[in-house]
Request: fold
Amino acid sequence: MLDQIKGLHHVTSMAGNAKTNNQFFTDTLGLRRVKKTVNFDSPDVYHLYYGDEIGTPGSVMTYFPFGKMPRGRPGTGEVGTTVFSVPEGALAYWTDRLAAKGVDGIKADESFGQKRLHFAGPDGDGLALVEVKDDPRQAWTHGGVDADHAIRGFHSVSMRLRDDGATNELLKYMGYQIVDTHDGVKRLAIPGGNGADFVDLETMPNIARSMPGAGSVHHVAFAVENRAKQLEVRKALMDTGHQVTPVIDRDYFWAIYFRTPGGVLFEVATNEPGFNRDEDTAHLGEALKLPQQHAHLRSLIEQHLEPLDA
Reply:
């Protein structure tokens, strides 16, 4: 069993309109845009990162806004819900705020003894807030949401699977432990994690496979401290038969990827070097930052990308 993984690092999804996506996460949810860059493989598409003040691993939601991409079809083999942590007593505030902003799909429930509020992102994204007592992580409070209510970071992701057996075993090998079961959903947790500690597995044997599109999660990333720990994880995964990519430099972290038995794409990302490697913390997410291989295309990229206005 591995002990290098310390919880979630980031969740990356796909979107339609970039301006709408930016407005939703920075204004409606009050997160900070910590990086404005482009897709490494498609530099005519933004890669937008939202999180806390510095983009702490475990707080960062990222998006590829592909313009007129059709919406995805929910189903199995994907992350169905991305869940953020908010303080106890905050959901009444969020219910009113989301309703006032015209957000769809607002629905309150309770799971694993915690109050939860589901809602949809601008492309039908499956999102939720859950009340967490004494989450010590510092919230970004310059996005219109005060410290008593602001998002602390991720709480969990929920994966929809036709059969959770192999994914369950993989997560246990990655250091997760089953801590509870509720209404047929298994909750796994990473001991001593970074606060974004939980993965829920929903088994849906009679549901069709998902079709990716706008609003779909592209991949979920797990955090390791540094490149040495990442290489240990890569070797261990390959030794157990997983097809893992070489280490890829993503400018703000190093990444490896592999497809899980249940169909979800996993990434293992380093906490280093962080989002302030090319911008001062006070100005994160303001300038368009380009990967080195696309720097010579700046004038063309800037002409093509839609201004975000914020």
